[in-house]
Write a structure and sequence with these properties.
By secondary structure, the chain is of the alpha/beta class. The protein has two domains: 4-128, Oxidized Rhodanese, domain 1 (3-Layer(aba) Sandwich), CATH 3.40.250; 155-266, Rhodanese-like domain (Oxidized Rhodanese, domain 1, 3-Layer(aba) Sandwich), CATH 3.40.250. It contains ten helices and eleven strands. It has helices at 7-11, 33-40, 71-80, 100-109, 121-128, 155-163, 175-178, 212-223, 241-250, 262-266, and strands at 4-5, 19-23, 47-48, 88-92, 115-118, 169-171, 196-197, 204-205, 208-209, 232-234, 257-258. Strands 1-5-4-2-3 form a five-stranded parallel sheet. Helix 4 packs across helix 9 (241-250). The longest helix is centred in the last third of the chain and has 12 residues, at 212-223.
Length: 279
């Protein structure tokens, strides 16, 4: 269970102290919405992991809307939520796994593979299990020692790709934002020249991840002859790109890297090139 887990498989483990459930619900247009939703009801025993808090580093105005935290800071935040080297972690949200996948990727970046995303999220949990709680569990802090892996790249690496195309750069944003239309989150619309678009929601059918064989076929069409491990993934702020990385892992095509700063970092520097329209 290091990619996806079904609600029924999670339900039988809720009382197991080795399992840590983290609620990652969030709304990009209303940052307080996730914690408010958690307060109204959550999976029993779940702790809240804020996208703008535990899953985000310090913003400078030039490093993106959700910069990757330093490894030590991320490890400390996760340890405070009860995650240790022996924990089995399950992350969920109500947005198709968009935010839960960020936690999934971060734990794997830090060297912890025992983490899965609840397939179908909060909605499927309510439909199939119907167990909720409003109490905030008492946190037993743990020691989490990070072992960071080289699974991310910086803006300089992406700029090198622009100058010397040779690797595939996949952008997970909605097609209209990728084309530079209807941009409401970042000050500049468009995409990195040479990038291709794979909207993260295309990984889902009826709120759940598509079967592995389906994802494999769809992603091979996106990647062409490129080796999955050579691909760099980005989005608006390094969040929904993790959904694509999770989908590739489900499909057996893992190994790609994340550009955490993504479009919100890229477009903060007017010297960086911008493309609009279809590639």
């Amino acid at each position: 269970m290091n990619t996806l887990i079904d609600p029924r498989d999670l339900a039988v483990r809720l009382t197991d102290p080795a399992w840590v459930v983290l609620d990652c619900r969030h709304d990009l247009s209303d940052p307080a919405a996730g914690r408010a939703a958690y307060a109204r009801g959550h999976i029993p025993g779940a702790r809240f992991a804020g996208v703008d808090a535990e899953l985000c580093g310090l913003r400078t105005g030039r490093n993106g809307r959700h910069p990757l935290p330093e490894a030590a800071a991320a490890a400390a935040a996760l340890g405070a939520l009860g995650v240790s080297a022996s924990s089995r972690v399950v992350a969920y949200d109500a947005q198709g796994g968009m935010f839960a996948a960020r936690l999934w990727w971060m734990l794997r970046w830090l060297g912890h593979d025992a983490v899965a995303v609840l397939d179908g999220g909060w909605q499927r949990w309510l439909a199939e299990i119907r167990l909720t709680a409003t109490d905030v569990p008492t946190l037993a802090a743990a020691t989490f020692t990070p072992r960071p892996r080289p699974v991310n790249v910086d803006a300089a690496a992406v700029a090198a790709h622009v100058r010397h195309p040779g690797q595939v750069l996949v952008d997970a944003r909605a097609p209209d934002r990728f084309r530079g239309e209807n941009e409401k989150l970042d000050p500049v619309g468009g995409h990195v020249p040479g990038a291709v678009n794979r909207y993260f929601m295309d990984n889902l059918a009826d709120g759940r991840f598509k079967p592995a064989a389906t994802l494999e076929a769809e992603w091979r069409a996106v990647l062409g002859s490129a080796a999955p491990a050579s691909v760099v993934h980005m989005c608006g702020s390094g969040v929904s790109a993790c959904h694509n990385l999770l989908a590739l892992e489900v499909a057996g095509l893992g190994g790609g890297r994340l550009y955490p700063g993504s479009w919100s970092e890229w477009c903060a520097d007017p010297a960086r090139p911008v493309a609009t329209g279809r590639p």
